[in-house]
């Protein structure tokens, strides 16, 4: 049986997730070159230097250690690197709390780091590493066959932005934990860890503290990103409050951008049958098969509706089991790439792309791991995390309900989707933006859909609709990983988005 995970979205039926390999990946303890200190809380770091700002720093071998009174119990260790793109300043390390260790890799902008925006990029899964985004999609470099080299990516999103790649939750990528009981199993708890990481990262890198900040990602990040934005806005509301932790920063959240995301399952699952027989590249099934899939949506919708109302594992797991089996499994049996219907699934990797093998080969090289300061076996996706979130009922929960309040706070929202992706297809993503209940719904629905002709290539690159703070964009000739399939177009639209300065998106 070929197991398909949401690489960036694990789209896998729960019944398949349950047969995925078990065993926690990367549950290694610190070794001597990683962290010789015992983290004892904010006042317990020996040899640390403090300031009135509440930031404490210390040296620990190749690392600089950071703690701050505003986020007690949390610590960050970082070291400068010369990997990937050696022409930009970069650092990597871990964010540590309660036996959880989150790996991050940060690259400064190729342009003007001190004034360019700051981006956080997240891949999905749940359980897949954001280093997939780094090396396969939008980072400063790619990987060559066998992981032997790292060619420069001229279309990297750090061309005009500083960018953080974060492996979360724990046991994803190079992240690990000392105690499985501390591992989170839902998006809301994961978002709080990310918020605390951002607090400490910005306290330690004050030149970015006031930069416009954009949370971006794809696939299951359609869950993660609304929750993270909500946590940031809640934290911002607490800054300066009488009972808030002294020294908390107000994070300058400017926008969120979700690519081929799973955000509103109740709406999105309705479009699997329509996409299968009505996508731009030709039908995947005979019409009778699409009709059969469509006939099962009524039960699927009812189950998801129960999850939306009660949001418990008991009410949410059944929808994940039934809907994924009824709506997604038929495609998995075709042998096509579920992330790009134009291609056959590459049998060398369960996630259909040979480059993922190359990324694993590179990141498991001894010299690369030594430079990164890690001793954890790197795997692109951890199916145990996928199973954990599934069994907690997280898959079908309505994180879409957080979007209106995010918009109400003046944060711009970009939803984009490649038109060749099946698993989080553009039809479903377009539909939920039209159904979203927010103050600008009527204006958004009445706004025209406009062709996007790329200034870079001169080609018709997509179609978009925009009104106020909300924009929806279909990207032509792209699958689930838009920056991988359309690198020139992806850097063009993301730069327009983060540098345009206007609430209305114009291409």
UniProtKB/TrEMBL annotation:
The entry's keywords: Carboxypeptidase, Glycoprotein, Hydrolase, Protease, Signal
Q: What is its EC number?
A: 3.4.16.-
Concerning Pfam families, the annotation shows:
Peptidase_S10 (PF00450)
GO cellular component terms, alphabetically, are:
fungal-type vacuole
Indicate the enzyme's highest-level EC class.
hydrolase
The answer on whether this UniProt entry bears the keyword Signal reads: yes
List the InterPro entries: AB_hydrolase_fold (IPR029058), Peptidase_S10 (IPR001563), Ser_caboxypep_ser_AS (IPR018202)
Please provide, alphabetically and separated by semicolons, the GO molecular function terms listed in this UniProt record: serine-type carboxypeptidase activity
Q: Which residues form the signal peptide?
A: 1-26
A biological process from GO: proteolysis
The family database entries (PROSITE patterns) matched by this protein are listed as:
CARBOXYPEPT_SER_SER
Homology family:
Belongs to the peptidase S10 family.
Q: What is this protein called?
A: Carboxypeptidase
